[in-house]
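Quick one, probably user error.
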């Protein structure tokens, strides 16, 4: 099987939890896609990096990240996958708000000013988290080339309405959830 097919199967087997839940958007659902069970899994995390790197290969960026916590392991998976292919892509973390001490940075890691960056998220329903990250990145002088998520739960329209290219490795239909 391909990386994409292997990752899809792992998501279905390990991350889809059935039962009533309230999402961060406030919406209710009959299932939850717990992608931390994937992005922090020894076999799945490398697949996440390779699948997203392939998905966004034509966008030309040199740093990847998003709003902590969902984006952190996704960004580091892409960083490692890129390094394995001989490409230098840095990762960064966007805090929900700036620190009140130390360097008081909202974006941690290598500087993003003047760089082409990819904003990522594990899964997105409304696009709110990733758009918050995009706003912070632009405020720091980064050029956001697009948004990529592992699983789209419906955020595509909102992200595109904000003027950004949007790609998802998997839709809910791909996971037999729609």
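Nope, works fine. Designed sequence:
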């Amino acid at each position: 099987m391909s990386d994409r097919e292997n990752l899809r199967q792992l998501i279905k087997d390990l991350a889809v939890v059935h039962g009533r839940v309230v999402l961060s958007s406030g919406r209710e659902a009959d299932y939850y896609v717990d992608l931390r069970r994937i992005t922090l899994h020894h076999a799945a995390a490398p697949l996440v990096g390779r699948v997203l790197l392939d998905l966004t290969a034509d966008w030309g960026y040199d740093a990847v990240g998003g709003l902590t916590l969902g984006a952190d392991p996704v960004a580091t998976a892409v960083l490692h996958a890129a390094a394995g292919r001989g490409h230098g892509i840095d990762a960064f973390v966007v805090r929900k708000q700036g620190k009140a001490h130390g360097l008081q940075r909202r974006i941690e890691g290598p500087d993003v000013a003047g760089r082409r960056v990819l904003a990522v998220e594990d899964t997105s329903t409304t696009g709110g988290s990733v758009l918050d990250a995009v706003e912070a990145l632009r405020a720091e002088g980064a050029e956001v080339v697009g948004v990529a998520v592992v699983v789209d739960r419906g955020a595509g329209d909102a992200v595109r309405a904000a003027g950004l290219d949007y790609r998802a490795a998997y839709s809910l239909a791909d996971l037999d959830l729609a």
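Residues 71-84 form the longest helix (14 residues).
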